Structure prediction request, 106 residues.
Amino acid sequence: MKNEALIRTLYECAAHCNHCADACLDENDIKMMVKCIRLDRICASTCTATAQALSVNSLDVKGLVAFCAEICEKCGNECANHQADHCQKCAEACKRCAEACRSYSA
Prediction:
């Protein structure tokens, strides 16, 4: 399948973001996690939509992939601000995904 590695990276990032958002709900100071949760949800949705568009391979998706890179970077930066293990793992997945999206668009 064309773009298989990028599609896999996108779905992996979405899974990390979904897990992170859910785990953030269990943190003691949930108000401090609101921005993280929102970005996790947006990032997961964007990564999933991008992966689905790439798997169909019928559209010009460069703009979507570029937007996904931006969202992954924002989400990764926010998650990196939190010490929780789930946030740190999510930040790493987002960084990998942003780099993969940028490589596709280059």
